Amino acid sequence: MDLPVDEWKSYILQKWSLLPKSIQVTISTAETLHDLFLHSSPLLQPEDEMFLKRLSGGYLVGKDPDASLFYREKGNQKFQAKDYMGAAVLYSKGVSHSGPSSTDISLCYANRSAALFHLGQYETCLKDIVRAQTHGYPERLQPKLLLRKAECLVTLGRPQEASQTVIDLESSFAAKPTLSASQFQILQRILCRVKVKVQEKENLPEIFPEALTKTFEGVDLREENEQIPGASSSVSLHVDPLKGRYLVATKDILPGELLVKEDAFVSVLNPGEVPLWPRGLESKWDIQVTNGDLHCHRCLRHTLAPVPCDGCSYAKYCSQECMQQAWDRYHSVECSLGALLLTLGLFCHVALRSTLLARFEDVGKVTKKLCGEMSNQGICLPESKNPAQTLKYDLGGEGDKKDKAVETPIPGCDINGKYERNYNAIFHLLPHTENHSPEHKFLCALSVSALCRQLEAAGLQAFTTDLKPTKLKAAEPPVLCAELSVWGVAMLRHMLQLQCNAQAITTIQQTGSKESLITDTRRVRLATALFPVVSLLNHSCSPNTSVSFIGTIATIRASQLIRSGQEILHCYGPHESRMGVAERRQKLRSQYFFDCDCPPCEREKQRPSAGPGRGAFRCHRCRALLQGDDVLSCSGPACMESVSRDLLVSRLQDLQRQVGAAQKHLRNGRLEVAIQLLLGCQSDAESFLSAEHSVVGEIEDALAQAYAALGDWEKSATHLQKSLQVVEVHHGPSSVEMGHELFKLAQVFFNGYTEKECIDD
Known about the structure:
Layout: H1 6-18, H2 21-28, H3 33-40, H4 46-56, H5 65-80, H6 84-97, H7 103-118, H8 122-134, H9 142-155, H10 159-175, H11 181-201, H12 209-212, E1 235-240, E2 244-249, E3 258-263, E4 266-269, H13 291-294, E5 307-308, E6 316-317, H14 320-334, H15 338-344, H16 346-358, H17 363-376, H18 423-427, H19 438-457, H20 482-501, E7 503-511, E8 520-530, E9 538-539, E10 545-550, E11 553-558, E12 569-570, H21 581-592, H22 599-606, E13 626-628, E14 631-634, E15 642-644, H23 645-667, H24 671-686, H25 694-710, H26 713-731, H27 736-760
Parallel strand pairs: 9-12
Antiparallel strand pairs: 1-2, 3-11, 4-8, 5-6, 7-8, 10-11, 13-14, 14-15
Helix pairs in contact: 1-19, 2-3, 4-15, 5-6, 5-7, 6-7, 7-8, 8-9, 9-10, 9-11, 10-11, 16-20, 17-20, 19-20, 21-22, 23-24, 23-25, 24-25, 25-26, 26-27
């Protein structure tokens, strides 16, 4: 996902192993990224590019009219089965494969509008009706499209527009009686129903649902920091030789206070498991739904009615505006490279897009100074006009040469000390070149080299200084020009940066049947992004902030009282409530190259047994926690009980199988059977698992769902509260997971209250 596909990784690692030792040493000891790229790039041979091309050929990202018909027919089957959500997604796939102004695309848009109508998405339905008409929807089918439009307008409280649509429709019937008698009668009946609705709504005020959807997007910082755009005035920027740049509270900060609200400098949608074309099979089109089908590829907004790129079937957007912005800024270059970028992975894609976006920040200066790096292996700040602020910054990122000293106090700041949320800030994120393995650096260098060569081969001289947003300059003879090589070095830098600096944009997805009274949710990774300000926060296994996302916008709030002078801390993933100190430190060391010495780590290191019992076994006699390795002994002061760990693990596995069987009954609607099984599991779990064990929480959550489905809200709430205690231990009191569990509990309380009110009446 982040890195290239396994086949390309294995191929390059084998190529590395076959290189002469002298070349391996030269690449391994390269002092700058320029040297690394210079020595690695010529090693990419034509046969390597052919192998990569074959791999990329497995991703179908071009337009295919046959695919459009296939998806429209599959969508029709879903529609007839009243699975309108599934139908809308399949119609969208059909839209993506259709050419503009074709009958195929107009039919897919029209059919999707019907699915959206049944889903109650009337505004979006109207937009699809307009799109179908714009792309030449057949005249003979127009009446039913206009009827749908009128019904949408009535439902939205826009009777005047609905009335005009009805008038147009009646005129159309009179002018062009092309329908059969039976069709005409059906449409007349629907038309009469619509006219009645129009009369009922005639005197009602219009509503504006889009205005009602503005919630957290409108929440802004109370007072923005003058030196750190996107950050609160309650924080200040500091730098330390050991921990780099970081943020500190300038006053006492209360829980819930908004500290950072920042739009990503660059983001790339996580495509999910994009299926490869299964060669040899009759059908090469897949109906699997991925993130790329449900979210805008620019702003990440969820949508059931995406607008496709005119040039490829992969990129989709929530609106024409988003599509045009993406095209102008980067997709005009990326469009023909879709299959290659899916093969090379998200990090390579983010690296390319970062450099493409850099073109819009004083292109001449950025390119000129990057080109200057080719000769002196340093780089100047693109925006700096003052020679005193020139930053000779080693492209290796670590400033390991004495004559490459940083003269500015804080990298990423301008001449006035203001931190910049632009390419300059992104460029100065550390790539930690010396910490990556030689094999990994070689893989990244050859992947970037292959991408650069494809840019030239496709005639996309993407990095020329006179490039306009909507025009591409034709390439000269297919040799890697010096300027493109410079940007190749920049892309290599970004690719190495991402392991430590990439921010996963996450969202909560609903799982299970939408008809269920209580549905499960899970947190999923939606995109990979770079945030200049968010990247300033250091890690703690017990952070004092929480992060959430709305599209590409990250918001960071204080999760506890932060005193003046305290550092603002963020969790990079390993949290004290989710894993022990040894596992946390190992994960942080392998990905971020540092040994965590935050207070929880130091505390647990000194007292290893003091951690929570979230995954622990307990004594069946006195209920105290069991401790030990192969043989566990009771920690109770007067209990001598001991038991084999293998025996307890075997019991746990049996219990998990029983819970799984109960959950299957629950999904299939066999509620009483599920409850009996779960109550048995609950009793068994209490005899040997700690109260905070994840399986205990799983059992309580399943019982809550079962009782809610039966309408027993009181019992549902009781079990959900027990599940809530386990979630808090595993994810923390200020976690997103905790917030969603609390929302589920609020739903149960609400449903229980409303039912009681109905009975009392």
